[in-house]
């Protein structure tokens, strides 16, 4: 802690009066927190006292405090004054401690894709559903369960998916999982046991998903993507037993699989005995077009459909649903049984009630409106501040692709991310999603506009525009 607060910003008095002094004070305080000079919980002087010490107007200090509170650097409570918020960086792991799952570094603004606004989780509605569901649950439902999950939730999901996504299924063909990762692992393990050795994937996707397939001793083979989605013709002759697709809204590029390619994918599966794995990761969030029905609805016997609550509610619920072709159900259930993995009964009971009471539908409608407004604001701000940046992939979902132009290439993305991190902004480069590295590909960022809470979204956009210039 400094001996005098003036040492935080010794040259502040040289700045012209007004906004530049306030901005200078804000930046000095951010740097003091980021560097650890001001640790979590450190009490700051009152706005009056700091203004006197720095020779500033009290309103300048008060406005700077207010901005930093809104950004999450500081906190203020009645009776305890203004303090440094709990933003401490995670400590380095001790010798021998695994780094395979590193703690996520905190930043001022998080625009990484793949997560909804967790502050928007409907806590009171979820709690109300749990209070109704638990007293009404039969005692036996608290015991060891069918590996497929609770029958009541599976019946409810069958009705909901038919109504909202056009999925054709019965409760017997639904397996409740702890997330998409577990569903994919069950599919890859089961298919390997049946002789699969090649699993086709889109050339852009989540690296963890490819790792899961490889962990089942199945090789991944990429399919190129263009404006009409994955190029299905590339399935011919590669010996694939399955293909993983995001047909409704490709992740991360945001294109949808064209109608003729949907048909081609199903014809390939029917003709070769292969399986299409449909990842409907954000099926609830469509903005500028008529929602596309699930691919599974066209051929339930060759498509395994997977949906989750990770984008619509929160990843921490660990709830997903795998709708399997009839001929695969028994093998998948056995794979889940021997894995020892189970999905929490209380979460299943609550989710069933949450859907049955229409609370889920109401939450989706509210969330869709919020995310659409955020997307529109992102486009408007970039158009105004960064006209050289091309924005695509936003007709649905929670992320956009920003093509940077200016001759930048994939090899430049790490340095751009480093600059962003230094400015307190978390973004991801498109190259992180490529199956095969390509340092000469045009540089782009994948920006998630669902992650920041409402109070921080405007600041996140300002930081993004400052980065892009």
From TrEMBL:
- Residue ranges of the TM segments: none
Q: Which residues form the HTH gntR-type domain?
A: 19-87
Q: Does the keyword Mitochondrion apply?
A: no
Asked whether the keyword Transcription is assigned, the reply is: yes
Q: Which keywords describe this protein according to UniProt?
A: Aminotransferase, DNA-binding, Pyridoxal phosphate, Transcription, Transcription regulation, Transferase
The Gene Ontology terms for molecular function here are: DNA binding; DNA-binding transcription factor activity; pyridoxal phosphate binding; transaminase activity
Q: Which InterPro entries match?
A: Aminotransferase_I/II_large, HTH_trans_reg/aminotransferase, PyrdxlP-dep_Trfase, PyrdxlP-dep_Trfase_major, Tscrpt_reg_HTH_GntR, WH-like_DNA-bd_sf, WH_DNA-bd_sf
Protein family according to the UniProt entry: In the C-terminal section; belongs to the class-I pyridoxal-phosphate-dependent aminotransferase family.
What is the name of the protein in this document?
A: PLP-dependent aminotransferase family protein
Q: Which organism is it from?
A: Candidatus Dormiibacter inghamiae
What is this organism's lineage? Answer: Bacteria, Bacillati, Candidatus Dormiibacterota, Candidatus Dormibacteria, Candidatus Dormibacterales
